[in-house]
Specification:
The chain is α/β, with parallel strands linked by helices and about 260 residues long. It has helices spanning about 15-20, 45-60, 90-105, 120-125, 145-150, 155-160, 165-170, 175-185, 200-210, 230-255, and strands spanning about 25-30, 65, 110-115, 140. It has a single domain, classed as Creatininase (Rossmann fold). The chain binds zinc ion.
Length: about 260
C-alpha cells in the first residue's frame, strides 16, 4: 500500500484510517518558524527545510507520515526585526501537547518532533518527556540530544564540503541559504545576500537570548549567505534526512 502523499494534510481521513490499519502508525512533525533570516532569505526558511528533511526521511523510513510543518515557534530573540512571529513558551508547550494528543487519539503510535527551528528545543525538552507515555500504546519523542545533533550535522557537513563554520553559520548563513536555494530557489534574494557575525553560537548565545540577535548581528545573519549553493543545499538536506532516519530508528528500537 503506497499513499498518494506522505503529508497528513494532503490525505483524507479514509486514506489515513486505511494506512493506520496497514501499520503506517509513525509520524514526524516538523517544527518551523516565521522569523527574520537576514536580508537575503525569506522568513519561512526553517519551516521549509524542516518539512523537506522530514519528507526525505519518511520516504526512506517507510510506513511513516509527515504532519504539517508548524510555521510559528519560539523566536523571541528575533523580535527586533519586523515580521518575526513568536509564541510564548507556554503557548508552544500547549501546542506540542495538543498536537501529540490529537495524533495519539487518532491511532498513531510513534510521534517524533523534528526541529527545523532550533529555538523550540529548550521548550520541547521541558514539556515532551512528560508526554512520552501519556497515551496508552503511543510514544512521543523528539531529537533529544541536540548537542550531538548539531555537532554531527550543522557543524560537520559544511566542513566536508570545504565550507568553514564561520561561513555556514548557525542562523541564516550559507547552510540555510544553500538549503533554501535547493528547495525554493525563486525566493533567494541573490543581490541581497550578506555576511553576518561569524562567531560560533556558543560564544554569543547568552547575549543573543538576553538582548536579541540584533545585539550581536545588525543584519540578523550568523554566517555568510553569499556562499549559497543549491547543489550543496541538496546534499545538506540528504545528510540531515539521513541523520533523522538514524535517530528515529534508534529511538524506535529502544522503545520496543
Ligand atoms: Zn533558520
Amino acid at each position: 500500500m503506497k499513499p498518494s502523499s506522505l503529508r497528513l494534510e494532503e490525505l483524507t481521513w479514509l486514506e489515513i484510517r486505511g494506512l493506520l490499519s496497514n501499520g503506517w502508525t509513525n509520524v514526524i512533525i516538523p517544527l518551523g518558524a516565521t522569523e527574520q533570516h537576514g536580508p537575503g532569505l525569506p522568513q519561512g526558511v526553517d519551516t521549509w527545510h524542516g518539512l523537506e528533511t522530514a519528507l526525505r526521511a519518511a520516504t526512506k523510513l517507510g510506513k511513516t507520515l509527515v504532519g504539517p510543518a508548524i510555521p510559528i515557534g519560539y523566536s523571541q530573540e528575533h523580535m527586533a526585526f519586523p515580521g518575526s512571529l513568536s509564541l510564548r513558551k507556554e503557548t508552544l508547550s500547549l501546542l506540542l501537547e495538543d498536537i501529540a494528543e490529537s495524533l495519539a487519539k487518532g491511532g498513531f503510535t510513534f510521534i517524533y518532533f523534528w526541529f527545523g527551528h532550533g529555538g523550540d528545543w529548550a521548550i520541547a525538552q521541558r514539556c515532551l518527556p512528560a508526554l512520552r507515555k501519556r497515551w496508552e500504546g503511543c510514544t512521543v519523542t523528539y531529537t533529544e540530544d541536540i548537542g550531538s545533533y548539531i555537532a554531527t550535522t550543522w557543524d560537520c557537513y559544511p566542513l566536508q564540503e570545504g565550507i568553514s563554520l564561520e561561513i555556514s553559520g548557525s542562523h541564516a548563513g550559507e547552510f540555510e541559504a544553500s538549503m533554501l536555494a535547493a528547495i525554493r530557489p525563486e525566493l533567494l534574494r541573490k543581490d541581497k545576500l550578506e555576511i553576518g557575525d561569524p562567531r560560533p553560537l556558543s560564544e554569543i548565545m547568552d547575549q543573543m537570548m538576553e538582548e536579541g540577535i540584533q545585539s550581536v548581528s545588525k543584519n540578523g545573519v550568523l554566517g555568510d549567505q553569499r556562499f549559497a549553493d543549491a547543489d550543496r543545499g541538496n546534499r545538506y538536506l540528504d545528510c540531515l534526512a539521513d541523520w533523522l532516519v538514524a535517530d528515529f530508528k534508534k529511538q524506535l528500537a529502544n522503545d520496543e
